[in-house]
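WARN retry 2 of 3 for item q-0093 after timeout on previous attempt; input resubmitted unchanged.
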Amino acid sequence: MEKKIIGFGVIGCGLMGKEFASATARWCHLADVDFEPRIVAVCDANPTATQWFRDQVPSVEQAYTDYRDLLADSSVEAIYCAVPHNLHEQIYIDIIKAGKHLLGEKPFGIDQHANAAIQEALAAHPDVIVRCSSEFPFFPGAQQIVKWVNEGRFGQIIEVEAGFWHSSDLDPTKPINWKRRIATNGEYGCMGDLGMHVLHLPLRFGWKPSSVRALLSKIIPERPDGRGGVAPCETWDNAILACDVKLHDQQFPMLLSTKRIAPGHANTWFIRIQGTALSAEFSTKNPKQVASLPYEPGGQQAWHVVDAPYKSAYGTITGGIFEFGFSDSILQMWAAFCDELAHRGDMRQPFRCATPEEAAGSHRVFTAALESERTGLTVGVDWGN
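OK item q-0093 returned
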């Protein structure tokens, strides 16, 4: 099979840039795809970071310290950008104006103003495909819930809960990093860092919160600064958002939570939907299992827990009896993005990566959540209509 090779540049050569490199190295894991990313150029202000790519990724031909030089590289058709939130606005806009397709990290701007500027650049360059990184909905269990929602299997929705929790920041001796500073992470704190993962599916389903009451927590006030002293932690550790969703035919509560300090959890992403005809839940805590409770009036109420086979949006060489994991979800997300680059509206399967519109929706929710925290009130979410 002849494959379309897509020349990629990576801006920001840290952890997630390396995960992308790992996904490209595993491309043979995918079955029957006619497209393939090839990392040809990398950029980081720290030359040591780009050296890893030069050592480990044979396709890399150029390493830059100025991203504008990478944008001028004609061999680069698309870009993965993973930089701190305060850099999103300028770099994302410059990528879009350069005509390069973009998969960018959330939250697509440090605040709503920055996100609006990115959206304006997108509107002026409609031929550029731009998507937001959010891999967890590509787990097979999550895809099963997506299928049930699209089929209308839940009946009237009773309530929804979605969250993303981890616990690495429970350790008070962990040195401070850019996510703890408002200047680099933004006021959203854990919401900007984790919240797009949580809102990806609700927004994809059309479940836009009409209002939010936020409970935001700062748990560890200061951390080692790496120079023998301590520095204040300025951003929110945990966030619980109680939302009201109003659709044309029903209304239900939706609880969203993003937690950097959730004891015992290591990147636990989950979604739970309760309905009058079906209830279901999936969590990466138990990545092989999907729980569901089908119900008919007068019938029994019994939860069924089944192992989800190794099957996601794109077929792979792995048998269905084996386990699906984080690196597999990254690979599936990248396949969806490259599929869209290669085929535009004629993708091999219908589930796309998170869109800029969904990223903008997350900003609407987070901005309202900050106002709720300041006032102690339930705040309406402005959807512009």
